[in-house]
Design brief:
Blueprint (H helix, E strand, L loop, with lengths): L9 E5 L5 H13 L4 E5 L5 E3 L5 E3 L2 E2 L10 E4 L5 H6 L2 H14 L1 E5 L2 H6 L9 E2 L6 H6 L3 E2 L5 E4 L2 E4 L5 H12 L2 H10 L5
Parallel strand pairs: 1-2, 1-6, 2-5, 6-7, 7-11, 8-9
Antiparallel strand pairs: 3-4, 10-11
């Protein structure tokens, strides 16, 4: 049962080819902590097919979205999902705006490199990503932090991949609700970290 604990909202952007566990694990932690979230398809169809051919029906399509209703834009990884996100002009224009201070941008796996670093949004910032894409952070002016599951630099939060998705969810709960709320959810999900 969802019990809202904050008015701050998260929009999670799903594309065909996304990594479904990265998306849904983060959203699960947020849901359990009372953070309102919407899944948003970047296509004209609410249904997307993940990189592992799992069908997901999103809450909304991007053309139904008012970005000003959200505090966080969340970008899961996966291929070719991440390249599909990077090619979505309505999304990346808002990612640019949020990264410039309008809100928080959270990205995991390939998304920190493919969506953020390639756009210059990690220049002068500390960040991490999937190990196969970490070189792009430094190549695009960022400071790579390869030994952390989640790296926060100002309003940009990055994470490495499926195995670090819970850590990213907890970091977002800490930011959007409270550090205590993040601690409170850990035993409920049997988190050992």
């Amino acid at each position: 049962m969802f019990k809202q604990t904050t008015n701050r909202r998260v929009a999670a952007f799903l594309a065909d080819g996304c990594e479904e566990v990265e998306a849904l694990a983060v959203l699960d932690v947020l849901f359990r902590s009372g953070v309102p979230c919407d899944t948003v398809s970047i296509t004209g169809n609410r249904d997307i097919v993940s990189s592992h051919e799992i069908h997901v029906t999103c809450d909304k399509t991007i053309d139904q979205l008012n970005f000003d209703d959200y505090d966080v834009l969340f970008l899961p990884g996966g291929m070719p999902g991440t390249t599909n996100l990077a090619a979505c002009q309505p999304l990346v224009s808002q990612v640019d705006r949020f990264a410039a201070g309008a809100g928080i941008v959270a990205a995991i796996c390939a998304a920190p490199a493919v969506v953020l670093a390639r756009r210059g949004l990690l220049k002068g910032r500390r960040a991490t990503s999937n190990p196969n894409f970490q070189h792009e952070i430094a190549e695009n002016g960022g400071t790579l932090v390869a030994d952390q599951p989640v790296v926060r630099d100002g309003n940009i939060i990055t994470s490495q991949g499926m195995g670090t998705a819970i850590y990213l969810g907890l970091e977002l709960v800490s930011e959007l609700v409270s550090p205590q709320a993040a601690e409170d959810v850990k035993p409920r999900i049997v988190f050992w970290g």
